[in-house]
Design goal:
single chain, mainly alpha, 3 helices
């Protein structure tokens, strides 16, 4: 299995999800959609980033 760098769009989406979920999880910041599901949002960002690395062309 050859690993490839994810495309810029996939990387940026994963980073944005992590940036949204981090402060919600560890501080008192409230973001309406993310606050109730902060771990899920962070997990989705990680899965998206992992898919971008493992799957060619994503």
């Amino acid at each position: 299995m050859k690993l490839t760098a994810p495309k810029t769009a996939i990387f940026l989406i994963a980073v944005i999800l992590a940036i949204l979920a981090g402060p919600v999880r560890y501080t008192a910041v409230y973001i309406p959609v993310v606050s109730a599901h902060s771990f899920d949002v962070l997990f989705i960002g990680f899965v998206l980033l992992a898919a971008g690395v493992l799957l060619r062309g994503l």
